[in-house]
Amino acid sequence: MSTPVTKQEVYMRAQQLQERIRAWRRDIHRHPELTFTEHRTASLVNATLTDLGVETETEVAKTGVVGYIRGGDGPVVGLRADMDALPITEINGTPFDSENPGVMHACGHDSHTAMLLGAATILKELADQGRLPGTVRLLFQPSEEAQDEEGKSGGMRMVEEGALDGVDAVFGVHVDPTHDVGYVATRSGPMMAAADRFELVIHGSGGHAARPQAAVDPIALSGVVIGAIQQVVSRRLDPLEPGVITIGAIHGGQANNVIPDSVTMAGTIRSFSPESRALLQTELRKACGVVEAMGGRFDLTIYSGYPPEVNSPEAVETFQAAATEILGSDHVVESEQIMGAEDFSYMAQAAPGCFVRLGVHDPAWGDHYYMVHRADFRIDEDALPIGSAVLAAAAIEWMESRR
Question: What domains can be seen in the chain, in order of their start residue?
């Protein structure tokens, strides 16, 4: 009979792998790649897994890699990492700063990929020892940050192409600079928001700025529309339901003495439930209708984005049990709901899922937080083996509790 796997054993092995995980992360960080162009990163992942003896499938969802670690006849557990970077110029000044001008791993996907490689190393060793109760499917997905010309992200394409078929549960980790190293946070139910975007064109009729009575001023109309839109969340949405409508861009006019024919706006809609999502879209359209009462007209286009990321209670309970054995119950905390969006949501629709926030803030930094999507984003790399350990431990916990 094989020796049972303890979570502390998993954590100790992850600590032993820290320098290797760090090297993977820094290599990927130096060579960031944008959405659906992650060829070098995918090659590194595939070569590393192949060296471990892991069976792989490449070019999944265009540039993704799926690995298969086969153990006993227990459940199949998916572990996910995203690989793409952002169009940001790095300003950190480290020896491993981005060498790709204008592109940076400013959201931690380099860390996610490295941590999953660390987890894969641990799990493959256990499988080779006959101590892995089930099968692990490694999901290295491209393009979480953006979508292709068909409006599809890497997570959506992976699900469509069958990468989640037969998976009994799926776990993913995202770095979180608001939590100290040594802490993880998650929650049951909706954790991250749906993210839809809209484009609005307000049409008036142009004219001379000195003769406003002979025109229908779309700039003036836009002020009325903005006020009406701001009433949607505060007066149309249940106060106990979270929601956001933000106008992020507005363009109109080119000269100080000319009333333009139109004004364009663009913004985002965030919500946590299908009902709130539908209501916000409907009420946004109604709010735009105020321009018609003032002689203008409008064109509103709403583009559906990622759905809410909803965690399975069973998967969350499994993760929390595994992480508690490693970090202690006081370091496994409940995550707040986050208005950011994540395409892990598609995977969590395909199988019971748990998305986790991993603390990467160095307490020595005090109240200075290096936030994601910024040119100075950074992490405390002591978090890397913790991420590898909790991913591997969650997979083992799910297998052991359900075989």
Answer: 7-191+309-402 (3.40.630.10), 194-303 (3.30.70.360)
